Amino acid sequence: MRSVKKKRGIKGELIKNLYFFLKALLISFSCLAAAILGVALYFFINGVRPPEIPPMPGTAFYNGDAVFLSLEENEDDWLANHELIAPEGFTSYDRKQLFYTFLIIGLNEGTNANTIIVASYDGATKEANFISIPRDSLVNVRRGLRKLSGSYMTGALQGRGIAGGVAQVQREVRTIVGFVPDFYVVINYDAFHEIIDTLGGIEIEVPFHMRYDDRRQRLHIDIPPGLQHLDGRTALHFARFRNSNRRFRAITDYQRMENQQTVIAKTLEKLLQPSSILLIPTFTNILIENVHTNLTLGNALWFASQLNEIRGTEAMSFNTMPTRGTSGAPSWYELLDGPAIVRLVNRTINPFNRDITLRGLDIISTH
Predict the structure, then answer these.
(1) Could you report how far apart the first and last alpha carbons of the chain are, in Å?
(2) Cα 165–Cα 140–Cα 110 angle in degrees, nearest 5
(3) Mode of pairing for the β-strands spanning 202-206 and 226-230
(4) Are 75 and 60 in contact (CB under 8 A)?
(5) Is the CB of residue 253 less than 8 Å from the CB of residue 132?
């Protein structure tokens, strides 16, 4: 009996040891595979070439004036709907090398462009610049209510969907900054909180208690003051907050843009960490599902690799498009300050070797 029990005990011990050995081996292979994937991603990304600077929207002549041809639509459709005067004398030969510009459109419920940012990245100096444009900016393009926030919906509702919405925003932003940004990124709010959650959240100093309930939007914001670790959903609430319930503090649209810039800066700060390279496959899936862009996968991978080249957040600038105040009731337009805009654009996001002039913009001087 003792010998039988002993044999069974030895057999059981062998099976147990074999189990732990296989488990350890599996874990080792998993770690090795993850390491190999990380190294492969690193070398693959660093092997991606810088994107070619997209050609300027082609010029043609329409009723004697030079106009842009859309990169998204055919020539006849563009000429019929988008009479954009090209900056006089500017050509592709005037472009700065390795200097890229971006139009970032954040959609609210898939319709209104509540967030519009023009950004640039200088591959030579490794610097990035962001300019938020007030959503209530008065644009000299459409009839009726001419707030920039309605640009995407106006284009999309003309039966051309996302491409039409993008083209209309491009057209209206062009009148403000003097050029059509190279790349566009249309992103809905779902992508914001998914990216932040993937990064493990962000830390933000909340200046006061943000409290707001809106049953129609199914929106409930309740963020206490002080240094807070925000998940994606709460960070989005921080970026969206403007109105408040009674006895609580509200903010202006300019302050909300500053909060949006804070969320972007804190998110980029975490993306700049080397460990974020292993999250690229997850980010790719998020972007595929929630983002519409003319960036190719190769473009996106190169720009992702540049995150490690930027010398921290001190190499980034966040600005708000200068205005001269509001028009007041009933429209409450934000009136743009043309001369100040020209100075800001030339200092930050101008992709040309020559300065853009006020003549290249179409700013309404009076309301």
Answers:
(1) 103
(2) 25
(3) antiparallel
(4) yes
(5) no
Strands 127-132, 316-320: pairing is parallel
Q: Which residues contact 357 (CB under 8 A, 6 or more apart)?
A: 342
The reply to whether omega before 330 is within 30° of 0 (cis) is: yes
Residues listed for the chain: 367
Taking the whole predicted model, whether its pTM rises above 0.85 is answered as no
Q: How many CB atoms lie within 10 A of CB 163?
A: 14
Identify any residues that bridge with 183 across adjacent strands, giving them in sequence order.
Answer: 102
Of 126, 145, 106, which Cα lies nearest the Cα of 50?
A: 126
Q: How many CB atoms lie within 10 A of CB 64?
A: 5
CATH 3.30.420.590 fits 87-191+266-360, yes or no: yes
Beta strands in 73-225 (DSSP E): 99-108, 112-122, 127-132, 183-188, 202-206, 210-214, 219-223
Count CA within 13 A, CB hemisphere, residue 239.
26
Which tokens is 102 given? 């971006």
Encode pLDDT of 222-281 as tens digits.
999 999 999 999 998 898 887 766 666 777 878 888 888 888 888 888 877 777 777 877
Domain boundaries defined on the chain: 87-191+266-360
DSSP codes joined into one string, 5-23: HHHHHHHHHHHHHHHHHHH
Look up residue 246 and give its amino acid. R
